[in-house]
Amino acid sequence: MQLRYNFRLYPTPGQRQALARAFGCARTVFNDGLRARQEAREQGLPYISDGDLSKRVITQAKQTPERAWLGEVSAVLLQQALADLNTAYRNFFASISGKRKGKKVAPPRLRSRKGSRQAIRFTKNARFAITAGGKLRLPKVGDVSVRWSRSLPSDPSSVTVVKDSAGRYFASFMVETTTEPLPTSPNEVGVDLGLTHFAVMSDGEKVDNPRILRRAEKKLRKAQKALSRKERGSENRKKAKLKVAKAYAKVTDTRRDWSHKLSTTLIRDNQAVYVEDLAVSGLGRTRLAKSMYDAGWSQFVNMLEYKAVKYGRYFGKIDRWFPSSKLCSACGTIATSMPLNVRAWTCGCGVTYDRDINAAINILAAGQAERLNDCGAQVRPGLVPAPREEAVTHPKPHTRQAGIAVL
Hints:
Helix 1 crosses helix 2 (50-59) and helix 4 (212-228) packs antiparallel against helix 5 (235-269). This protein is 39% helix and 18% strand. Strands 1, 2, 3, 4, 5, 6, 7 and 15 form an eight-stranded mixed β-sheet that branches. It is elongated. Residues 374-407 have low confidence and may be disordered. It is of the alpha+beta class.
């Protein structure tokens, strides 16, 4: 299982200049490679292969006066910048051909030096190392101070140095880890995500929505107004822009920390966790978009998924069209309609439900049914039978691959 471990870096002023030079060289190689392929397409020439492109924009470019300064940085980070371009093209071609599922991928675009995020990647070929004193040794940069919050489980295969919009530097290590199964728990839980309450559990527990962005809006508004009053191109505007970026970075860090704590608690206390597969991109086009993105559902669900793999738990997603709110968890009757303003309802069987708790109970039941169903057919709790047309003689085995996650 591969995971990313992020740590804060504190480069010296000279090391910051060296990193800025490295960021610029990697961006130049990426843009030169992109322009070369765009020009070849416009002229009707064949697609430039990865090897030929590397010779043109790196090896041969270093021999010209215009690009001679590319030799001032490690050649590995230049090759990795070109590898990112090649990956972007492969994803684009796979998307338009239908081989890649999900949202359509746009073709690669030119990178801007004014972008909010700059990054370079070093692999083992670059011979980066962690010194005995706990510093990160980067080729042609030096030994950079690192704030270690924990130890790495194994030797990293690569490290990505990132500068964010707030001017902070981070080292992201790619590490191969093994699963760490927790003691078996008899508990399983269904989780209904929402806005009034961030999460409602099938056992009746409700977790309030922290509304982190909403609470920081006053401070953000003040910083943005101060930025709008500054003259464009002035030093004061740069300072005000950095202040806005730091305020937003604090919101992002607070939300991530809160999601980590809640997801860890759920995985630690339950053997299986089930949630709905929400269409976040679709909900993002509604009037609730700001509140929805403030909640950070996708980030939270991704944390549950990779932590379940790491700690030997089961994580399941219920189909987004499953009527969890309209389905009576006692008799299986589905209500004809359930507007959002209806927070409690009474079924014809005489049972009165809290809307969110009933949905969480149905998510738990549906998740347990799908987990036990060998063929993977959709099974609803209560009196609703499984679709028989989905029952097959030779079911395909379920596999789960461990993805790359950010800790």
